[in-house]
Design goal:
With about 625 residues, this protein is of the alpha/beta class. It is built from seven helices and 38 strands.
């Protein structure tokens, strides 16, 4: 009956000339295989999908910028990953009730989409499903949905209100990050798991409430806590003024990320541990105080340190002017991230490595003094330091990390010592919102022959247009950029696996092959008597690794994050990721670990290191490695 009424109304509107005519696309505009629409090749506009289609395949309409509306037939039961990703003009879509699954990033970056109703048979709002739908003001979530996935509604800036049904149990990482129009939210009593940063960067959010009867969470003055009040889960990004953390709290993770209205905070003596960059992007925060008696951290002049003063945890983002880091500090990971008031910094010689993202996004930083004690500059260290015009890297530095100077648009000159042996991927590169980078002169303390020996990885295109001044003259040839190597010299092993290894969510993380391999590996650095000989043989036999080249395995070498997830991915049988959406700016489709990283994100094995980065070249600590493995086997109790 409803269809008949709609048909009559449509006919009437056509007669009086106030309704646009739908574009009934010809069959040759679609590629359909066994009921699956795999590709659309038409001009866009108002498109009607033909009857008989039962599934919209992965990336079927991806990037169709002229698509304005889509009519999906009732027979469709699934919408694949990236199906409408980047359809920037799509304003209207009606999803039929028969749809049971909406794939990852299915409607990501549909910037004109203003409302949507999710069918009542859908149980999961998947990874990045509506990411970047900035015009979305209304969404109806049915009570069939049990989980809201990672980045599901990130950067939906037009969303001012959302009702989470009482069926939802899980809200994942960054689910509502950057929803700057969201003013309040109520957590139903069915929710038992809210991940870190779920509401990060919600600048207008002033209150997070919890329904009565929740066994997992509670709310006091609009701040979200665990039920027992021992964990502060999320502080509303738009809540203004000073805040004192209650004395019952022992941990707070990244609960304050992007709280732009927070001006000062007091940490009680009960807090037992501190997350990296706990107050990142708190642009108006001027003071962080710690109560006497706290055994985990301390505060000096409003700056947060570890108790022994060897680690600088967080510098207030609203604190203005120059700063000298106290002598004795050794670790700076993300410590100054987003500190726009910082203008100059002096680093003591107790620091040997400038940590990951240490000064990322310090847009007004114009001067930095790096001591000779520093031997490495890690990933993202100075990314988006837009006011930095020149920098001298001291003698002794051997490596410059990936995207270390990404987006430093006014950097015109840099001095690089002859101790540098590697410049990692995109260390000197444009950011997504830049058309150029101003780097004109590189002053190298070695000879032209020594410069040619530096391993300059791909993505450093800025160096190819700069003038390289060496001791013995100006380099006439452009630097050669080398591709990023994988964890093996031969990514496709010649040995055929005897069995496809699997990683099964059980209480035991063991993934042994059906037969025990011989300890013989043919690696010159793996002795048969070594405790790792048989595991190495197993890994070779199952196509997980073929070593590092030159007949060596490198058992004493450290592993990177990219290598570890690649090992896990291969151990799982190298499954094809369900989505082509890449959430990380430092992972490219040409990288050997690209599919492994996408797989790891899909399976909640990793969510990166923050700021849209995965850190593939970072050393993977023992803690990170065992966490990856634990998550890969289903996070067993």
């Amino acid at each position: 009956m409803k269809k008949r009424i709609l048909s009559v109304m449509l006919a009437l509107f056509l007669v009086i000339g106030i309704c646009p005519i739908l574009a009934f696309a010809s069959e040759d505009e679609f590629t359909i295989e066994n009921g699956v629409l795999t590709a659309y090749n038409g001009p866009g506009g108002n498109v009607v999908i033909p009857d008989g289609v039962t599934s919209i395949g992965m990336a079927a309409f991806m990037g169709c910028e002229n698509l304005t509306s889509i009519t999906i037939p009732d027979g469709v039961t699934s919408i694949g990953g990236d199906a409408f990703h980047g359809c920037a003009s799509l304003t209207n879509v009606t999803i039929p009730d028969g749809v049971t699954s909406i794939g990852q990033a299915a409607f990501a970056r549909c910037k004109s989409l203003n409302s949507i109703t999710i069918p009542s048979n859908v149980t999961d709002i998947s990874f990045m499903a509506f990411f970047g739908c900035e015009s979305l003001t209304n969404i109806t979530i049915p009570d069939s949905v049990t989980s809201i996935g990672q980045n599901a509604f990130e950067d939906c800036i037009g969303l001012t209100d959302i009702t989470i049904p009482n069926s939802v149990t899980d809200i994942s990482y960054w689910a509502f990050e950057g929803c700057t129009g969201l003013t309040s939210i109520t957590i139903p009593n069915s929710v038992t798991n809210i991940k870190d940063d779920a509401f990060c960067g919600c600048e207008s959010l002033t209150s997070i409430q919890v329904e009565d009867g929740s066994t997992a969470y509670s709310s006091i003055d609009g701040v979200l806590y665990s039920k027992d009040l021992r964990q502060l889960v999320s502080y509303p990004g738009g809540k203004e003024g000073a805040f004192t953390i209650p004395s019952s709290v022992v941990s707070f993770g990244n609960a304050f990320g992007g709280c732009t209205s927070l001006t000062s905070i007091t940490i009680p003596s009960s807090v037992a541990w501190i997350w990296d960059a706990p107050f990142s992007d708190c642009k108006n925060l001027v003071s962080i105080q710690v109560e006497n008696g706290n055994t985990a951290c301390s505060s000096i002049d409003g700056v947060l340190y570890s108790k022994d003063l060897t680690r600088l945890f967080s510098y207030p983002g609203g604190k203005e002017g120059a700063f000298t880091i106290p002598s004795g500090v050794t670790t700076l990971d993300f410590a100054f991230e987003g500190c726009n008031g910082l203008t100059s910094i002096t680093i003591p010689d107790s620091v040997t490595s400038i940590g990951i993202g240490a000064f990322g996004g310090c847009e007004n930083l114009t001067s930095i003094t790096i001591p000779d004690s520093v031997t490495s500059i890690e990933e993202m260290t100075f990314a988006d330091c837009k006011s930095l015009t020149s920098i001298t890297i001291p003698d002794g530095v051997t490596s410059i990390g990936s995207v270390a100077f990404l987006g430093c648009e006014n950097l015109t000159s840099i001095t690089i010592p002859d101790s540098v042996t590697i410049i990692e991927e995109s260390a000197f590169a444009y950011s997504s919102n830049m058309s150029h980078m101003s780097l004109k002169d590189v002053y190298y303390s070695g000879t032209m022959a020594e410069w040619d020996k530096i391993d300059i990885r791909e993505g450093n295109f800025v160096l190819t247009s700069a003038t390289i001044h060496c001791q013995d003259g100006v380099l006439n040839e452009k630097p050669t950029l080398t591709p990023s190597p994988g964890p093996t010299a031969n990514p496709t092993p010649t040995a055929t696996p005897t069995a496809t290894p699997t990683i099964t969510p059980t209480t035991s993380p063991t993934t042994a092959p059906t037969t025990s391999p011989s300890p013989e590996t043919n690696f010159t650095d793996v002795k048969e008597s070594a405790y790792y000989a048989q595991p190495v043989a197993w890994a070779v036999e199952n196509g997980i690794t073929s070593g590092i080249g030159d007949g060596k395995f490198g058992p004493e070498n450290s592993c990177t994050r990219g290598q570890i997830v690649t090992f896990l991915w291969r151990a799982a049988g190298s499954p094809t990721p369900q989505t082509t959406t890449n959430p990380f700016t430092d992972v490219k489709s040409s990288d050997y670990y690209y599919k492994a990283v996408l797989w790891a994100v899909e399976n909640n094995i990793t969510s990166g290191i923050g700021n849209g980065k995965f850190g593939p070249g970072n050393s993977c600590t023992r803690g990170q490695s065992v966490t990856f493995i634990w998550r890969a086997v289903g996070s067993p109790n």
